[in-house]
Design a protein that fits this description.
The complex is a heterodimer of chains A (245) and B (256). By secondary structure, chain A is α/β, with parallel strands linked by helices. In chain A, 40% of the residues lie in helices and 24% in strands. In chain A, the strands form two sheets. Chain A has a five-stranded mixed sheet with strand order 5-6-3-7-8, sandwiched between helices. A three-stranded antiparallel sheet of chain A has the order 2-1-4. Chain B is globular and about 55 Å long. Chain B is 75% helix and 0% strand. The chains are: A alpha/beta (245), B mainly alpha (256).
Chain lengths: 245, 256
């Protein structure tokens, strides 16, 4: 049963650092060789040589401080980014969204955004139409659902985003920092939903700073520090180590 | 029953087009009328400048202008919007993995719909000048639509992808389309081009296409040589556009 569904094999990812040309074109022309050299040399290493596997049906947490490469990892899993080195294998129908509510447009209403977001997630319009009432009910946004979402609070946006995800069924779900802004009742509802997913065998990769949530739903956790894997293991153990550090 | 994958592509195009249209018209009172009003206003400007003031010798000049300006407007709207297509959708591109070429596709498609919806105005002007639409429109319009779509989509892919890496392109695009406009026989007939420059007319990919559009609207005729040349340009532009997009698209999320 323990079949790896996401495999990272010595993956590194670096981004070119951009050097805006300051001082105008004259300066640029005089220092062209130097500029080209600096362009080639300075790359920012977001992830260095990381390897891990996520197994079928497990909930895998990623923790670490801001800017250590957690979101880059998710981007690589969703294939929005390409690794600079190494190999990534993802089996199964993955949610192409890195973040809840990705692709929401502020001028569209909640209802219109559900449709847009759902289709971007890989569903057909007909499927979303069938589920839209259920999604709206889950979100508890009532009358606001027909308002443009620019008038929503960040908590309401999170509700809308999670409600869409909660009713679509990818085999692999990526969840990046979602529950932080919702109110406690809704946070609880989300966690319950994720426990449901877990029972159904959905594989989840969960990025969060809330150790309480990670503890509650994750089986295993990867701790990323300084752009590389510090530790991978049993959720409780890693969380304890991380909290002490 | 269509394959789910093809159906999903179509749904993506529909949803993205709806989004563009809704966002575009949500806060404007006249909405769709602008897609007619804009080329009509241009036609008025050129009519005053060239007919009233400079007394150009072209029969039914107002009709002549409209028949050329409407398809041109489609082309220039799409191309001028291209630099910001990916730039303006940064949040989606960074966060969602989906075929990004659908975004320029949607832009060009949406401008095409506007153009098609504006053709009744051309018919109206035909009647004003005691002319009528021809039967050849039935095949002529779809053929020219496809050619112009491919050509515009190809250029749009090049401009929208390249602009992410070379942002000055945004300014250059507007200068380029304006220049191209005056080098294309839209506000003057191709017959007025001086003899020694006539040989260059086919170097401009838009010329044979625009001349065909106007002839089709005014007299229901299509010139085969122009048709072949513009089809060649369309295929070439599409091929180059697709190659450029393929080469650059994996870096989009990094530079946005």
């Amino acid at each position: 049963m323990r079949e790896p569904i996401i495999i990272f094999d010595n993956v590194s990812k670096s981004f070119p650092l951009y050097h805006p040309i300051t001082g105008g074109y004259k300066n640029f022309l005089f220092h062209l060789p130097k500029w080209i050299k600096s362009l080639r040399d300075s790359r920012f290493e977001a992830l260095r040589d990381i390897s891990f596997e996520v197994y079928n049906g497990e909930t895998f947490g990623i923790i670490g401080r801001n800017g250590v490469g957690k979101s880059t990892t998710l981007g690589l899993i969703a294939a929005v980014l390409k690794p600079t080195k190494g190999r990534i294998i993802v089996k199964g129908r993955i949610s192409p969204l890195l973040e809840l509510g990705a692709g929401f447009h502020p001028e569209l209403t909640g209802r219109e955004n559900i449709m847009l977001n759902g289709v971007l997630m890989g569903l057909l319009r007909a499927e979303i139409s069938r589920k839209i009432d259920e999604i709206i009910e889950f979100s508890e946004l009532d009358n606001f659902i027909d308002q443009p979402i620019r008038v929503y609070s960040s908590g309401m946006l999170a509700r809308l985003g999670f409600s869409v995800v909660a009713h679509l069924a990818p085999e692999i779900l990526l969840i990046d920092e979602v529950l932080a802004v919702g109110d406690i009742q809704f946070q609880k509802k989300c966690i319950d939903r994720m426990v449901d997913f877990k029972k159904k065998g959905v594989t989840m990769v969960f990025v969060s700073h809330s150790m309480r949530d990670v503890e509650k739903i994750c089986d295993r956790v990867m701790w990323i520090d300084d752009h590389t894997v510090k530790k991978i293991g049993d959720a409780q153990e890693i969380i304890d180590n991380y909290s002490e550090a | 029953m269509m394959k789910p994958k093809a159906q999903h592509y179509i749904d993506l195009i529909i949803v993205l087009t709806q989004k563009e249209l809704k966002v575009k018209y949500k806060s404007s009172f006249l909405g769709y009328l602008w897609s007619i009003g804009h080329p009509l206003a241009f036609a008025l400007v050129f009519w005053v400048a060239f007919k009233v003031v400079m007394r150009i010798e072209v029969e039914n000049y107002a009709l002549f202008l409209i028949a050329g300006l409407f398809p041109w407007q489609w082309f220039s709207n799409s191309i001028n919007a291209s630099p910001t297509i990916f730039l303006g959708n940064a949040s989606i591109i960074k966060k969602v993995n989906f075929p990004r070429n659908l975004m320029p596709f949607t832009q060009v498609f949406q401008d095409m719909i506007h153009f098609v919806l504006a053709t009744p105005v051309i018919v109206l002007f035909l009647f004003i000048y005691h002319k009528s639409p021809s039967l050849s429109w039935l095949y002529g319009i779809p053929v020219l639509l496809i050619i112009q779509f491919l050509m515009t989509y190809g250029i749009s892919l090049i401009v929208s992808s390249t602009n992410l890496f070379f942002r000055d392109l945004e300014r250059l695009t507007i200068i380029f389309t304006t220049l191209l406009f005056y080098f294309t026989p839209v506000i003057y007939p191709e017959t007025m081009i001086p003899e020694k420059y006539k040989q260059f007319i086919n170097l401009n990919p838009l010329s044979p296409l625009m001349v065909n559009w106007r002839n089709l609207f005014l007299s229901g005729t299509l010139e085969l040589s122009y048709l072949t040349i513009s089809l060649g340009y369309a295929l070439l532009s599409f091929a180059i556009g697709y190659l450029v997009y393929r080469k650059l698209s994996w870096k989009f999320a990094e530079v946005l």
